[in-house]
Design goal:
heterotrimer; A mainly alpha; B mainly alpha; C alpha/beta; A: mainly alpha; ABC transporter involved in vitamin B12 uptake, BtuC; 0% strand; disordered N terminus; C: 6-stranded mixed sheet; 6-stranded mixed sheet; 33% helix
Amino acid sequence: MILKEILSTGATRVAAAIIMGFVIGSLFIFFSAEDFIDGVASGDAGAAVAGGLGAIGAGYEALFRGAIFNARADTLIEGFKPLTETIRFAGPLIAAGLGISLGFRVGLFNIGGNGQMMFGILWGTYVSTRMDLPFGIHVLVAVLATILGSAALGAFVGYLKARTGAHEVIVTIMLNYISIYLFTWFIRSPELLQDPTAGGTPKSDPPAVTAQLPELFAGTYKVHAGVFLVAFAVWFYWWLMERSSIGYRFRMVGHNPHAARTSGINVERTYIAAMFASAALIGIGAAHQSLGIQVGYTESIHASIGFDGITVALLGGGNAIGILFAGLLFGAFKAGGPQMQVIGVSSEVLGIIQGAIVLFIAAPPLIRAIFRLPALKETPGLEKLRSRILKREVTK
Amino acid sequence: MSDTRIEVTPGMFSLAERKVSWKSTIVMAAFTLFVFFFFGIFGKDQPVTYKITADDARFVLPALDTMSNTVGIVAGILLAVMTVVAAIWVSRKQDVPLWWVIIFGAVALFAFLGWLAAGSVVPIAFLLGNALILAVPIIFGGLSGVMSERVGVVNISIEAQLIAGAFVGAVVGTLTGNLYVALIAAMIAGSLLGMVLAVFAVRYLADQIIVGVVLNVLVIGITNFLFSQWLANDSDSTNFPGTFPIISLPLLSDLPVLGPVLFENRLTVFGVFLAVPLLWWVLFRSKLGLRARSVGEYPLAADTVGIDVGRTRFWWVSLGGLLAGFGGAALTIGNVGAFGKEMTAGQGFIALAVVILGRWHPIYMSAAALLFGFSIILRVWANQVSPGIPTDFILMVPYLVTIIAVVGFVGKVRAPAADGQPYLKE
Amino acid sequence: MKLELRGMSKRFGPVSANDNISLTVNSGEVVGLLGENGAGKSTLMNLLYGLYQADSGEILLDDKQVSFKGPGDAMAAGIGMVHQHFMLIPVFTVAENVILGNEPTGKFGALDLAEARKLVREISDRFGFNVDPDAVVEDLPVGVQQRVEIIKALVRDAKVLVLDEPTAVLTPQETDELMDIMRQLANEGTSIVFITHKLREVKAVCDRIVVIRGGKVVDTASPEASTEELASLMVGRAVDLSVDKSEAKPGDTILSVKDLTVIDERNQRVLDDVSFDLHAGEILAIAGVQGNGQTELADTLLGLRTPASGVITLNGEDITVDPVRKVLDKGVGFIPEDRKKDGLVGEFSIEENFMLNGYHQAPWVKGLTIDQAARKTRSDELIKEFDVRTPSEKTLVKNLSGGNQQKVVVARELSRDLSVLIAAQPTRGVDVGSIEFIHEQIVAARDRGIPVIIISTELDEVYALADRIAVMYRGRIVGVVPPTIAREELGKLMAGITEGVAA
């Protein structure tokens, strides 16, 4: 499948896609900049262009300031705070990206990251706000509850697919909505998980101090122990998919479920196991989000990570290191977004950049066409497929 | 020259005994019991009025006044009879026909409505009318899905096409003041997105599901960005298009019950009556349709008889996008007017589900879409009339229904055989 | 119409599929294009048909040069092709398939199906095909589907008819009938190109035989030439078409199948009370035309299908409902009919394919992880032992030739500890050299005592390998005969004719 080409993306192609993504985003900033619009309205072309370019410059400067280094800070340590914020935002994105990538490699499109996160967080919230456990145990149980809750929903999707052949794209998207509404109900009901001081708004209690993932550099940086979870997730993904026998089976089913069946693999059970694993990794991201926080949260705690994870997975090309860096890139976007918002550039443009990057990654021949302009073979359509059938007869 | 002709019979093997499952009868029995007891014997002891026609209709049918639990009991008895008949059929190894199940469902639904509205009124014309209106974007999204998948291209980006249509319809409508121009612009926007999908799928051999997902991300991102950056600051001059006028077709709209429901509507709804039968005819009765279907089933074979697979896919997917653009416009200039962030709320995916439910057939797909439209208006109305049920659960209804539909039915349907496979793949 | 191909050449990357091929077919001639799997025959025809564009060369029809941008042009010019893998839409009816691309229409482009049916019946009657225009193609037996392919070509007034390996799916009788039809068409002036690798047939019907090897025309032979001569022209060296096989010494019953009945999704009895026994040290060949239940038999033995009734016993143990994993672990070796779909993962390397069904065992796996060093060692051994031609054990299997791919499958299965070997179409799409090798391996396994079931539609292979032949027709075993049976008699069984068959 072409997906395999995507999953073995070459580094140059990735770089090219990223550049193209920024170009597209810049165009949006340019044309929607206030100064540009004013310049156009007043007929001053020079001012318009200057306005547009200025917006681009200011936008990316703000992005850098929010995501990597803040030159305006008082101390060097504070200056690097943005970088730690990038790492903090990247954590759940990396985890979600790993989970979704695992799904892809088994032939499953897990678009339900958000819903799986919320279902896991539901359980995690119960443990962290309604249970009283000793220090150390509490956070472990909370993390485990989140991961397992998320995994359970994933396994359910796998079960439906195995039992009824239901397409996981539709089921996971529907479960996103259902799961989020379910969580909202829980945090709307005082007798369940709602913060008693919240009044009418659906809001949870903050996680108990013993259940929180502790900050690593208390006071200076907001990075917390969740990074260790994510680091483990990266190693685990690599080991699982590249070295373990289970991963071998996953990959076989992903490439060719017929051959897998003939080789003794129970493909249906594999789908369930893979969805479980996929959602479990996403659950690590959910734990990072909901237990690394000191205040109560609403149903938007998922921050669209389950969905952004798809772009991370696609950009990461199926391998652990790629996903790690892709997560860091998109984490940088999230960290720098607010700074851009402050100077008047709507941070949604980062979503556009993200989407554009992935669109270019999804079409390798397109990138080749744009950047290296090869002579695309002008041969009738059948040729490639034919040579595949005939390869038996041609290569001797 | 041999002296015996090989017998030519359709099919090679002898047949085994037909097995008809008891599943449907058991489900019917379960529903019968539920309706009888929950809506009937233990139902609400309050009066309920079934208002069949709107008060201002030409032919006003008398409303049905009754008690909520009475309806439950009567319905339960009817359902029991229907279940027994079904059981007789199955015991004679005959399949329970679909129309019987539909009537069964309608009776159960009647009782459910009576239970919900106990102490109040069931506005049937209102429900049916709005079911149709709400179904319009889903139907057009579904048509886009049918056109695309029938030629073998999976279209996950219906959501993007709908929202693009909604956005462009609202904004162009406001800027030009002309709703017809806005409608055309919306259709163009939808078809452009269809073209992007088509080009990526056909020429650049991308994985169609991924392109679809990414298009959704991009278009939602772009419309959100433009909304925040532009529309929100200046909504009077950018996001205030108004809506199409409601047109009453002469004579037809005077028919009892269905008249106003079907024939007193906006242009966008009338579009359904044109588009759905037209697509059906093209797909199953015309030369174009035969060729298109062959491309979706076995593109290699189509190629060997001289059909241009790439071009067929490109045009069908793009025109599908055009229809989805129309459906998106129906959301804004055909219904509420202004555009809101992510206002499609997943209807693009529900459209996909109805495509599968409807077995890639325009008419069955539309019927399924009407069911969804009904579930949407039901949740709105149920919230008003019986506020006891928590909103969050009511909001879930369309999505739950989708899952049940997809899970329950998919195993029995066959997609176009080459659905989702890029043709030039190596 | 006279067809001439001059100097046709076509490369796919470094491989030269067709190298300066020239060929002439006169009106009313039947020319055979003989070559083994991979020689370039189909490529040539695809060039003719406009599916590929030649790198160089000319096509002349009635001495006028033509060029085809696609199959549409070729068909308009009068060239008709009956493909090896049918180009029919399974869910369409016969009539719809026949008119596809050339539809009779009414107003606004409406399909005129009445006209379509008429066209089908006309041709069907002319040749005695007896095909129902409204039958859905996927419900038709394979032999009938082929007739639909032929009707498709003839309906467009083909003056040149190319038949690509048409007899693979026919009984001997149907093959004879097909040849009669070819002769009838030739007598009416059609030029016919008959592509095949089957020596017997090409001699039976052709006026001339053009032999292709390695993409080049090697020689033109007359149908009077002996099969040995033709075979050596085809392969390039002296070929011994028989397999060196000592007498079988059958031992105990290892595998026993009793009253096996399998019902498919369309409620058909694809296996109908099948019973047979398999003894140690013997090769049982299941002969029959493709589509009579052989595939389903193999699948059921492996555990991919569950029978509705019946018992399968292996070494005394009941394995009827055992899942595939258990069946494999009990020592059943399986060479599937479609290696690309069921036997290999193209995106995996050779060494990864060697462990395809052994992912839970040594030497491939230690504990939970893959033992990469042990895997490499074992893979290198197997590559050498089974003569897999490849630069490295890490080569992706999809880049191997058909013959080498099959050798990977054979290597994997025969290197396991087997109680029985099931081989379905083991040499389909494989070059002669690999065919010889695989046949040797199978016989060697038998001589080690392993019972073998071979399912094959190639009668030559059946005769070469079988110690006993069971014939399947419509899901039943209609006869079990010794390999001394005459070909015509075997053909009758394959067509379901059981009375009067002399074994």
